[in-house]
Amino acid sequence: MNDRVLVVGAGLSGLVAARELAHRGVGATVLDREPRAAGRLATRAVGPGRADDGAQFFTVRDERFAELVGRWRSGGCPITTWCHGFASAPAVGDGPAAADTTGDGPPRFVVAGGMDGLAAHLAQGLDVRTGVVVEAVAREGHGWRVSGRGRDGGEKAVWRAGRVLLTAPVTRSLGLLAAGDTALPAPQAVALRRLRYAPCQSVAVALDRPPAVPEPGGVQFARGPVGWLGDNLRKGVSGTPAVTVHAAEDWSAAHLYHDPTGVAEKLLAFAAPWLGGARPVATRVRRWRHSRPTVRHPERAFVVRPDGGVAPAVVFAGDAFGGARVEGAALSGLAAARALTDPVLG
Ligand SMILES: Cc1cc2nc3c(=O)[nH]c(=O)nc-3n(C[C@H](O)[C@H](O)[C@H](O)COP(=O)(O)OP(=O)(O)OC[C@H]3O[C@@H](n4cnc5c(N)ncnc54)[C@H](O)[C@@H]3O)c2cc1C
């Protein structure tokens, strides 16, 4: 049997899983549709600056995650403590005068230069193929056949492996199995189909001078239409002023398919009191359809034996399994690698 594992998704869970598999002596190939490994740890240029589009920071609660973060740091990943809590305000329209800047929570960690630096760190030494849109996952002989093509719609490519790890949003992963005519046992299909995500509209804006976001450079709003404002210059992501604005979930859902230019204009108008008169020099919108899991599965890795249990395992992982956010995704990746190397699977 082909012992290699094919991992769909080079976000945090897929990369952590592939590294753990390598550590356990199992080779993996990681495929991702985007031009760079990162998933929701994306950081991108906006005009002369840079901005984190997805995850803004992370916290550490579980000791296994603390251990992982320690390993990343000692391996050279530039993880720093941003602060011990953000400013908070009832709503974006209240302006900086309403901000409470008492921060006494746990450390909020970031990656100098942008959260995607963590993905780049984890991808080192792994077989990661980016720009590959996986289209179907099908059973073949004693293993799996994964087919896809380049983002530009180029020629079809096929990979074969003994086991498959799916880390894309669950609805997409189910679509890949369906496209490969792979039937899941009914109870498991039902459990996976009930998982849900909330969307988030994110706008990155480069400014002609620093904004008026209070210390420490991030503010959370108790109610919409904006949920978060982050200053990428103060955070150490951008060399020039650049702010990330995240719409609240309700607003994001109501405007999900609206024209991105109009979405940017609206969100920047809401954020105006916090920009302190700084003028936009460039903007960029990122629509996250699957930003945060709202209905999660309790276990960190979900093992499926399709076709009535005769096929080798497919494992599902990601932040919809076990725990949300950066920490949950990383722990899910670890759990998936363990499940994939369990001698009773395969
Ligand atoms: C706007 C926003 C703000 C956030 N803020 C925070 C925060 O401040 N703190 C925090 O801890 N967490 C935050 N999160 C959540 C955190 O980013 C995620 O929990 C975590 O990054 C998820 O990792 P993952 O591996 O589960 O999924 P993902 O990162 O989504 O990885 C899945 C990967 O699968 C790939 N993929 C999908 N379909 C295909 C296909 N057909 N073929 C090939 N590849 C495919 C995608 O390109 C993606 O790279 C935020 C997320 C968003 C979107």
Describe the structure.
Helices cover 25% and strands 32% of the residues. It is of the alpha/beta class and 346 residues long. The protein has 2 domains: 1-42 and 115-195 and 296-346, FAD/NAD(P)-binding domain; 45-58 and 83-114 and 196-294, Polyamine Oxidase, Chain A, domain 2 (Alpha-Beta Complex), CATH 3.90.660. A 6-stranded mixed sheet has the order 8-2-1-12-19-18, covered by helices on one side. Helix 1 (12-23) packs parallel to helix 3 (116-123). The longest helix has 16 residues, at 260-275. The chain is globular. It starts with a strand and ends in a 6-residue tail after the last helix. The model has no long low-confidence stretch (mean pLDDT 95). Flavin-adenine dinucleotide binds at residues 8-14, 31-34, 39-41, 54-58, 132-134, 167-168, 172, 200, 202, 246, 288, 291, 318-319, 324-326, 329.
